[in-house]
Amino acid sequence: IIVATFSSNIYRVQQVVTAAEAVGRKVALVGRSMLNVFKAANNLGYIDMNHNTLIDISDINKYPPEEIVIITTGSQGEPLAALTRMAFSEHRFVEINRSDTVIISATPIPGNEKPIYRVINELYKRGAHVVYSALADIHVSGHAYREEIKILHQLIHPRYFMPAHGEYRHLFMHADLAHEMGQPWDSIYILNNGDILEFKNGTPEITGYTKAGDILIDGSPKSQIDGKVLDQRLTLSDDGVVSIALAVDMRRKRLVGRPIVQTRGFIYQKDIHSMDNEIIKRIKMFINKAAHSKQPLEAVLKSNALRNSLQSVLYSRTERRPVLLISIIEV
């Protein structure tokens, strides 16, 4: 049995552990956040279980499948979550088969429906029996209801109130509820992403704005995202790349041999020959013109003049601006 749930839902995890112990099953945890939250909760005494119930996920093959319960992350179909990797047979220790039951103890967060059902479909393809919110009452929201929120406001009586979590409409409805409970509007602060709320002399004030939003990670979390690199990748995906290599006799100011033109993702195969001829023709014209100028040929080639001339040819023929790589070999 594999149960996917939010790692922060400690009570749900406790329910699974208690049920597993009742039928003599061992429990294994999968997913970094599940392991971290469970460890913190257990250290604080929030988990009630026998000392020999929990086993490492690498030890599950030491027990028959009918003696194991796995609690995992990935209830929202996250691409790198443990359940997703299990569904696509990419997990190191868990392989789904026809004897398995997968319980997704969560409801889809709006916007996550497509990846969640993609994972469910893959689980069915592996032969698993899948139980999820559309088929059974296996999840109750962890979010507080309106009356529960009222209780909190009655207990706390905050001097200032800033609703958090959810879209702006949710924040406003929470703020409106607080006002109904006696909170003055001038002590309620509804912030947009990036707004800075700062306390000065005990009084809150929105003092500015900082950049907020998605954080892009390129490979390693330590790597810095370069906007120029992202722009180049976007251009590569849209318009492809053209690579040109040419050998030039700088002393005699002329081409040596025929330039080599290579393209990737730029034009169709049937159009490559004519495009190559057009590019080589433009290069020869450029070299001949530069040879008769007063400037050294090397300086002219190192300027952007050749690049601009070739980009003009490429755009006039295709209305596309590929990444252009020019390699000049001096002979």
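(ticket continues) Second input and output from the same batch:
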Amino acid sequence: MSLILAADNPTDQVQQAVQSLTWHDLGIGVVIIAVGAVIGWIVKFILNKALVKIAHRTKASARAFSSIAQWVVIALAIAAAITYVFPSVKPVNLIGGLGVVSIAAGIAFQTVLGNTFAGLVILMRETPLVGDQIQIGDVAGTITDINLSTTTVRTFSGRQVLIPNGTVHTSIVTVQTRHEWVRTNFDVKIRHAEDFEKAREVAVKALDRVEGILESPAPVAVLRQVADGMATMEVRFWSGSKQMDTVAALDAAIVAVTTDLSKAGIEFGPDNTVMFAGGE
């Protein structure tokens, strides 16, 4: 009975496993892990190429999922090596131990795991993508990298910002370059409301000669408000969705409209406003 109890004691099991360990078995275990590492690298290489060329996944997505496959292979190789070197350790015991460790790690690294799972979701749905120009809260810029934990953004002022994927997943994200064209608005206050129709005609004609503004949909100028004898004219036009294209078109549009209004003798201002990708 005492022998059975000793065999069932975890401490005695560990002592017996260590005492029975030989250099030959240890060498075989190292070889198993090394072979698993090589196979893992091969799996990563092949899967990465297949995801990009056959499944048409993005490079960031393919890199992440092929890396996960590589580590799964390596983990299986380590488990196989342990069961060979320590025959008393059964696979079911390893699985049970991993379950306990996973629960403990989940509690201790809840934020890290949350960002990782959010990264998996972002990489799987492929929105947003590396190269997209986005805005998340006060951060606006171009995505330069997406990995399992963070999304890296290079702001339009040249700064690098690392955003946790959990924040990206739960926040409202504006992808400015998701479509080729975006609409930009700016308001011009016409000092005398009776000049609005003439101002509308002048503004639309002024935009016809501005480079970077689409002919279709055509630029429009609409009446938004009349107050205190002044008419608020909203000028709308479509241009390239990239930040520099939008800013350049907006600059040229404001200069063209205000210049032509002045030439036509139409008084405007103050409190003119600008809005990117405005409402309906």
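Agent notes: The radius of gyration is 32 Å. The chain has three domains: 2-118, 128-175, 181-276. Closing as not reproducible unless the customer responds.
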